[in-house]
């Protein structure tokens, strides 16, 4: 069994690659980072260090590595007879993978089972986004594509920080993980991946994950950054930050319970567990990594505006989520292109225009005015701190 996995970064090596390896797949890592691919190609194994209450070390071997830019033809050939394609590259990068995946699918022999494609990104229905791009790039008929490839949405959860320099290919991760996969597209032939959970309706799970883990995580990063913390665990050790994060998760809990019918006690236990994960002092995770790409995180269907908009539509003023958005608007990370672009938007666009360009909210939306007021705190001509 062979899997082609795009994105040999933190979650690629520390989670998806590991689980596919443990499921018995030979993993072909495809990435554009030259040094990383060279190192993977010349190293027979790497270790995943799980840190926390029950630490463990897992070794990943039986993999190969290709540069998906300079060795594109080889990647296409690998996809042509692979069983699975997975990605962990970031939602905005998926469109760049689509032409390669489409060509690989087009070259598959008629006798092969459909390629199983799963995007493992933090975004609602990331695999649908990838499928739409692959459809556009695919030369043949849509029915032909549907016969050759199956696309399933997933929700992946494991905190994998940026790795220390000098650590080589080894990855430090938390012990917790969850991989929830939509079973329905596979029509009875879902891949056997020990540790993965199959469900018939992914929406509640992906929303619960994104609007609890990622909303809370990003809130901790932005409140923590404002309070001067560098690490997420240190931010959460600040009682004022922890209380504000908790208030944010109270609001998303209200939405998730009302919308998806989660049992309130079960959701509360989920929240508690996640808050504990954020305090893991063994995990060297930073506010800069977790707060990365603030424009993506402040966009319409994402972890802040998504739940806040739905609460506002149902008459609830999402005060804590708005506080988190206020902190996000001031997020300063000079090496993060989106943080720089956000500051530029705030410094150059009037509040109405900036509200639309940052959040995608419609001017008549009940949340628009409250977000506009936050944005108006950054007068045109100033640069966000
Ligand atoms: N790190 C986590 O805790 C975590 C957990 C769950 C989900 N995720 C999601 O997984 C995805 C990846 O996150 P990460 O933390 O591993 O990031 P990362 O930056 O560590 O890894 C991304 C990798 O993708 C590669 N890449 C970029 N463009 C590419 C391209 N065109 N083709 C092939 N490879 C390309 C990069 O070189 C990098 O190695 C994101 O969507 C993230 O939200 C991350
Ligand atoms: O990857 P992002 O930028 O969408 O979000 C940053 C973190 O919140 C995220 O990577 C978490 O560590 C992960 O989603 C945990 O499962």
Automatic annotation (TrEMBL):
One of its GO terms (cellular component) is cytosol. Keywords: NAD, Oxidoreductase. Its EC number is 1.1.1.17. GO terms for biological process: mannitol catabolic process. Residues 1-194 form the Mannitol dehydrogenase N-terminal domain. One of its GO terms (molecular function) is mannitol-1-phosphate 5-dehydrogenase activity. NAD(+) binds at residues 3-14. Pfam families: Mannitol_dh (PF01232), Mannitol_dh_C (PF08125). Residues 201-342 form the Mannitol dehydrogenase C-terminal domain. Signal peptide: none annotated. It is an enzyme of class 1 (oxidoreductase). InterPro entries: 6-PGluconate_DH-like_C_sf (IPR008927), 6PGD_dom2 (IPR013328), Mannitol_1_phos_5_DH (IPR023028), Mannitol_DH (IPR000669), Mannitol_DH_C (IPR013118), Mannitol_DH_N (IPR013131), NAD(P)-bd_dom_sf (IPR036291). It catalyses: D-mannitol 1-phosphate + NAD(+) = beta-D-fructose 6-phosphate + NADH + H(+). HAMAP family: Mannitol_dehydrog (MF_00196). Belongs to the mannitol dehydrogenase family. This is Mannitol-1-phosphate 5-dehydrogenase. It comes from Arthrobacter pityocampae.
């Amino acid at each position: 069994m062979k899997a082609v996995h795009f994105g040999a970064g933190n979650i690629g090596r520390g989670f998806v690659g590991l689980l596919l390896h443990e499921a018995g797949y030979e993993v072909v890592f495809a990435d554009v980072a030259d040094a990383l691919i060279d190192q993977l190609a010349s190293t027979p194994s790497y270790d995943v260090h799980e840190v926390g209450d029950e630490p463990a070390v897992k070794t990943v071997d039986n993999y190969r590595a290709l540069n998906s830019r300079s060795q594109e033809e080889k990647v296409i050939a690998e996809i042509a007879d692979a069983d699975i394609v997975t990605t962990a590259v970031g939602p905005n990068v998926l469109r760049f993978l689509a032409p390669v995946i489409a060509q690989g699918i087009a070259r598959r022999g008629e006798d092969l089972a459909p390629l199983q494609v799963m995007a493992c990104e933090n975004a609602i229905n990331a695999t649908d986004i990838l499928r739409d791009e692959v459809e556009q790039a695919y030369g043949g008929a849509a029915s032909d594509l549907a016969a050759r490839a199956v696309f399933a949405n997933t929700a992946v959860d494991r905190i994998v920080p940026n790795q220390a320099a000098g650590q080589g290919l080894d990855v430090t991760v938390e012990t917790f993980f969850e991989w929830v996969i939509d079973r329905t597209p596979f029509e009875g032939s879902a891949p056997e991946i020990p540790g993965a959970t199959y469900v018939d309706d992914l929406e509640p799970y992906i929303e619960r994950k994104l609007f609890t883990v990622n909303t809370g995580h990003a809130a901790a990063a932005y409140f923590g950054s404002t309070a001067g913390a560098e690490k997420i665990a240190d931010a959460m050790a600040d009682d004022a930050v922890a209380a504000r994060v908790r208030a944010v998760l109270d609001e998303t809990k209200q939405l998730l319970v009302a919308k998806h019918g989660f049992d309130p006690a079960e959701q509360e236990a989920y929240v508690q567990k996640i808050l504990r994960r954020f305090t893991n002092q063994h995990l060297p995770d930073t506010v800069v990594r977790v707060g990365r790409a603030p424009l993506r995180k402040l966009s319409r269907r994402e972890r802040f505006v998504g739940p806040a908009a739905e609460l506002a539509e149902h008459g609830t003023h999402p005060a804590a989520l708005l506080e988190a958005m206020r902190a996000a608007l001031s997020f300063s990370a000079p090496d993060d292109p989106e943080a720089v672009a956000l500051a530029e938007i705030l410094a150059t666009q009037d509040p109405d225009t900036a509200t639309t360009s940052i959040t995608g909210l419609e001017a008549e939306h009940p949340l628009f005015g409250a977000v506009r007021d936050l944005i108006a705190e950054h007068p045109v001509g100033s640069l966000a701190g």
